[in-house]
Amino acid sequence: MRLSWSLYTSLILVTISLTACQEQSQKPLLPTNEIVDSNGNPGEGLYQKHCAACHDQAAGEAPTKAAIQLNGVESIRTALSTGVMKEQAAMMSPIEIRILADYLASPSSESAIANARKHQCAGQLSLTKPLWNRWGNSKRNVRHQPTINAGMTKEDIPNLKLKWAFGFPGSARARSQPAVTAEAIFTGSQSGLFYALDSKTGCVWWTFEAKAEVRNAPTISTDENGHAKTLYFGDVDANVYAVNARTGNLLWTRSVKDHPVGTITGSITLHEGRLFIPMSSLEIINAYMPDYECCTFRGGVLALDARSGRSIWRFYTVDEPQKTQRNAAGAQNYGPSGAPIWSTPTVDAKRGLLYVGTGENYSSPANDKSDAIIALQMDNGAVRWVQQTIAGDAWNGACGPNGSQTNCPTEDGPDFDFGAPPILTRLDIGKDIILAGQKSGMIYGMDPDNDGKILWQTRAGMGGFNGGVHWGMATDSKTLFVGIADTPGNRFATGPSRQGLHGYDPATGEALWSKIESNVCAELAHKCMTALSAPPTHMPGVIFAGALNGILRAYSAEDGSILWSKDTRRAYQTVNGVSARGGSIDSAGPIVAGGLLIVNSGYDKFGQIPGNIMLVYSAE
């Protein structure tokens, strides 16, 4: 229930009688008159005091105020109390957090759990084999779907029509890429509710309530018959879950957080009874605050036993951070730090190796494992080799024109992560090759038999804050399909923008074709940019890709010509009755499985276009 503003005002006045209590506490129990705006609105006053500086300008990753107001009150309270904004809200009392959340939340938002209960499927869920599994649909992260699992051919593409749409209640983004069987679509959500939806109708088979937002793609284990058995996924508070795929019952859960703002962005990799967890963090955002002691997070990989969640080994990308200097605000600085692993680890079963891509360091000094592809021994996490492509890249949210600069490291680097996981594929000549794409706009072919030696390198884009290559690429071993974002604003960009889709020879890096996507309007806004930040997906003859302006397209794999196109940036009638619309397609790419094309649309970070919809297309 939401309190009236008159009651809020009464609560504020009560603070006069609580002065003695407040003197004994660092935080006031109730908001003071200082945060009430000129109209007597405490929520707006709290927003102006604690939030407006970042969110009115959409600084860095901060969503706009309008995007925040699409969220439900539960998700805003969670973000402020235990989630991504808890450091920024540390000086607010519980009642202030409640007031701010109630003020910002969508007045019509419905509880995600209540909505799911109203739209439950009848009967019991039975499952067959996975048709799309994990982030990359293989342990090698190739994002290729064979015709037998795609359930459609190139000839079907012009006949694709919307089959059904599912709205995520109280959400401003939809960035969890699904996993699919013939019977169900499994996906996480911003609210933390994890869904098993009927693939034909969109009714809800079951839900599982995670402790925080689930943004990564689930991984499915199978039984002796090859049928879906267990789902593994993580949340943004670095909890890992093992859930029964048929019932949604929890098998085990474990927190893998070893830093206050540690998180899991990449999907979990399962191989021979072990889970490999990529570790990243939100400290890059906390560094924006001048009084923050930046930085102490260490990127890495954690190996767990898949049956029990027991820890087996942990690898760190940087040594234990040490005190360096005090910043201009007097806060102690530390380093080295950062080099997070944003994406899904890649398995090389033949060599017993795990390949990961790393991001930039958060603070000085930059080390030798940032902006690199690293090969780890799967049995113990030992480093086999490191191929660093950019040295000296240390950067955090304090850098740049909107940053405070106080915690910006001396390197003030380009922030050119490997946000996309490395791909392992076999060429027609029978040789294995590692394919890697970087936010710098560079793509690489590396030799897994020679310590990751760079065999070729090609500039595919100018590079930028959101890529270059941002979240991923795809291949059928004959062509490397590269989506390029090339959003403006990075001072380290090289050459003209090449936003769009490109095909390269994976053996040589030679360009085969390019489909440059011009802006669709003149404004410097995401609605104008057909920039491909989300990873593309390949099926024989076709590449599917979604853009920051909400355009979803099917391209010819032969030459990049457009076979089919839909603008997802509109309102939809949903099967669960939720008011929902599409927006930017980012982070999670489209997938094709069992005759369905599935995409989540809406992304509220970086000033992009918020939305809360899952769209399911079919050629039936």
Secondary-structure topology with pairs:
Blueprint: H1 5-14, H2 19-23, H3 42-50, H4 52-55, H5 65-68, H6 73-81, H7 94-104, H8 112-118, E1 130-132, H9 147-150, E2 161-167, E3 179-181, E4 184-187, E5 193-198, E6 204-209, E7 219-222, E8 228-234, E9 239-244, E10 250-255, E11 262-263, E12 269-271, E13 274-281, H10 283-286, E14 300-305, E15 311-316, E16 322-326, E17 332-335, E18 346-348, E19 353-357, E20 372-377, E21 383-388, E22 423-426, E23 432-437, E24 442-447, E25 453-459, E26 473-475, E27 480-484, E28 500-504, E29 511-516, E30 537-539, E31 542-546, E32 551-556, E33 562-567, E34 571-572, E35 580-581, E36 591-593, E37 596-601, E38 613-618
Antiparallel strand pairs: 1-3, 2-38, 3-4, 4-5, 5-6, 7-8, 8-9, 9-10, 11-13, 12-13, 13-14, 14-15, 16-17, 18-19, 19-20, 20-21, 22-23, 23-24, 24-25, 26-27, 27-28, 28-29, 30-31, 31-32, 32-33, 34-35, 36-37, 37-38
Describe this structure in words.
Mean pLDDT is 90; it is low at 1-34. The strands form ten sheets. This protein has a five-stranded antiparallel β-sheet, with helices on one face. Strands 11, 12, 13, 14 and 15 form a five-stranded antiparallel β-sheet that branches. By secondary structure, the chain is mainly beta. It is 11% helix and 30% strand. The protein folds into two domains: 5-104; 119-618, Quinoprotein alcohol dehydrogenase-like superfamily (Methanol Dehydrogenase, Chain A, 8 Propeller). It is globular and about 60 Å long. The protein is built from ten helices and 38 strands. The two termini are 44 Å apart. Helix 3 (42-50) packs across helix 7 and helix 6 runs antiparallel to helix 7.
